[in-house]
Specification:
Layout (H helix, E strand, L loop, with lengths): L8 E3 L5 E6 L13 H20 L3 E7 L3 E2 L8 E11 L3 E12 L4 E15 L10 E3 L3 H20 L4
Parallel strand pairs: 1-8
Antiparallel strand pairs: 2-5, 3-7, 4-7, 5-6, 6-7
The structure holds coenzyme A (COA).
């Protein structure tokens, strides 16, 4: 079967995503701190949306999430804001950057609470990796992100023993 994405290029703007979620008592420990696992789940979800928007018909799975540091706490009643975009596309793999913000809704204060780099891979119905559209770099920022994403991808593949 011919690969429909061959020679196709898409911009990062076409797939970027943002979400805002209210943090509830069920998301947090007894002192009100939102669980890292809740944040991670939503990071994984939004990265999957970005990857799927870019890859379209194929299935996308998470291959890795780089070490994640939670810089600031997020509390019950805060909104969790996630901004996600593609930095780098290899062949079937994609690096998605997710920035995490906590918003104090009482005072309209938004703080950067963390960042994650998620690698997703496009696969066919047999689980075999499948090429995705190349990333069309429109701006100097796109080019810088691509270069830095490529360097990170090489080191994560080395770490995983895949290079
Ligand atoms: C991700 C997965 C498909 C890769 O399988 P694989 O046998 O290594 O596949 P390939 O050798 O064909 O590699 C496919 C791509 O994955 C990339 N890759 C594989 N392991 C990786 C890792 N640990 N980190 C980053 N990229 C990785 C390869 O570099 C390659 O990229 P490219 O096509 O852009 O060059 C496979 O490991 C898998 O199915 N894992 C489980 C995924 C999952 O269940 N996630 C949670 C639910 S979504």
């Amino acid at each position: 079967m011919q690969n429909p994405t061959k020679n196709l290029k898409k911009t990062a703007n076409e797939s970027k995503a943002e979400t805002t979620l209210m943090m509830l008592p069920s998301d947090a420990n007894p002192k009100g701190n939102v669980f890292g696992g809740v944040i991670l789940k939503n990071v994984d979800l939004i990265a999957g949306i970005v990857a799927k928007r870019h890859a379209n018909q194929s299935n996308v799975v998470t291959a890795s999430i780089d070490r994640m540091t939670f810089i600031k706490p997020i509390f019950i009643g805060n909104s969790l804001i996630l901004e996600a975009r593609l930095n780098y596309v290899k062949r079937s793999s994609m690096e998605i950057e997710v920035n995490i913000f906590a918003e104090d809704l009482d005072y309209n204060i938004r703080v950067h609470a963390g960042r994650a780099y998620v690698t997703t891979v496009s696969i066919d119905k047999y689980g075999k990796s499948m090429e995705v559209p190349q990333l069309l770099l429109e701006t100097e920022d796109d080019k810088r992100r691509f270069k830095e994403g490529e360097a990170r991808m090489m080191s994560r593949l080395k770490e995983a023993g895949k290079l």
